Each structure stands twice: as C-alpha cells, then as structure tokens.
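Lecture notes, unit on binding sites. The following record was shown on slide 14. It pairs a sequence with IPE.
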Amino acid sequence: MNWNNQRSASDLAKQEDINSLGKLPKHVAIIMDGNGRWATEKGMPRIAGHKAGMESVREIVKTSSQIGIKYLTLYAFSIENWKRPATEVTGLMSILEQYLRSEIDELHENGVRLHTIGKLSSLPKMVQKLLKESIERTSDNQGLNLTLALSYSGRWDIVRAVQMIGLDVRRGKISPEDISESLFSSYLQTANLPDADFMIRTSGEMRLSNFLLWEVAYGEIYISNKYWPEFRSDDLYLALQNYMNRERRYGMTSSQIVNQAQNEKHSNYLQKMMNVLKK
Ligand code: IPE
Ligand code: IPE
Ligand code: MG
C-alpha cells in the first residue's frame, strides 16, 4: 500500500502547512510512554496498552514518512525495562515479533530503511533473526530511516564506545589526542544518525529515561500529555508546529541567529544566481 496515495485532503493540507513553516527537524526521536497507564485506566491488562501502542507506531511512522522526516528513532524497550515482570517482557517481545512480521512488506514498499540500536544479543533469537532480515532487506531504501531502540540505554552505549576506543588506543589505531566529539560519536551505535533535533515524550513524564543522552545534547524537547496509544498524526503535527516555531540558539544570542539565517538566505540566493548565469 503506497502511503502517498493514502493522504486525505485534510492531512495533505496540514502537512503542507508544517512544511511551509521552514526546516523540518532532520531527526525526530520519540519516547513512547504511557501504554501501561492507558490500559490500567481502562481496566485492561498492561499488555493491551502495548498492543494499542503498536497502532500509534504504525500511524506515526507513516505520517513521518509522508511529511518527509528523514530520521525517526523510537524508544521501544530500554535495558532497564528487562526488570519488568517476566510476563510483560515476554508479551512485549511477542508484540515486537508480530510488528516485524506484519509491517515489513509495507515499510519496504514505502522506501523505509530499518535500523536498530541497543544490545540486540539480549533479545529472543527469533526477534534477532527477523530484525537482521528486515534490516538487510530494506538496506537500499532511500526514504525514512526508522531506528528502533531495543534493549537500549544511552549510558550503556557511551560506556561501550569508551571500551572500544580504549581497545583501539591499545592496538595503536588511534592515540588519546585523536579523541574528539566527532570521533567519539563515530563509536556510538548512532554513528550513522544525525544528532536528535527533536525529542518527543508522551504521557507527561519529564525525563529522558536514558535515551540518546549524547545525541540530544542540543535537541529540543517536547512533552505531550497524551498516553502513547492516543498519540496520533494530529499530535505529531502539533509537536512539529511547536518545534518549527522555536529558535535554536546553540549558546548564541537571538540576533546572531537572525543574522546567520539572513546570511544563509543571501548566499543561497547568490548561489542560485550563479547557477543561472552558468547555464
Ligand atoms: C511504554 O509504556 C512502553 C515501554 C516502556 C515498553 P509503559 O509500559 O512504560 O507505560 P506506563 O509508563 O507504565 O504507563
Ligand atoms: C522509557 O519508558 C522506555 C521506553 C519508552 C521504551 P519507561 O516507562 O521505562 O521509563 P521510566 O521508568 O518511567 O523512566
Ligand atoms: Mg512508562
């Protein structure tokens, strides 16, 4: 099913509105939280919340791809989540397996490229196998880069990177003086992803819960009060609108940022004129 043929007139209008606001965040990262509370409040078992959450995953992935977001990273399971009751963990793993089985054709058809970050060796063998196949199958796709964070934690990744850097120093491949921010980033599991520009967390909680600690250093944060199973396209539009109206200053002053934008516009214009003259 081609997602671009599925856009309703109202979605199309909203998506165009967002695009007209300026530069979309390149990399959106989402902490999908609140499945358990959503279910409990409805008198259902927590696992029903995780199942309902999958519908939100489907919709948000599709919408992100339609809008033209290049990188979407979803926090699906943290290393700390292994501490949950065994029945919940097993249920979550089987929902993940189901998701991969049922969605991969549609993701592939729509140009989505799948990636993962996390300690995958902790996942059930079947899930590991499905992930590997799906990643290989979609590896030439040029559309949305969808990264699933599975058995992931930011500190785990940072410590792992430090260990590998240590090994490369010992082997003489690099020297301690070579260690820079960009070299360090290249040792993280997120090496091929740009920094997270926009981090969304659902369910009103205001914490990072060990997600992309390094990568979100200058990212914008947005908290939605909706539980993840209720977070749908319109909520993503709202979040993106909110992001597009912010000024990212990176430690500078507002007028510096305005000048920078004007200079950029000016040099883009000059470049365009040069290209026209060359023709
Ligand atoms: C997020 O929902 C999904 C995972 C962490 C796997 P929760 O299961 O954390 O739901 P709450 O936060 O308990 O409501
Ligand atoms: C964060 O949610 C992890 C995921 C969404 C996968 P949690 O529900 O595990 O976070 P805490 O424990 O409330 O911080
Ligand atoms: Mg939670």
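Take-home: The two ends are 41 Å apart (CA to CA).
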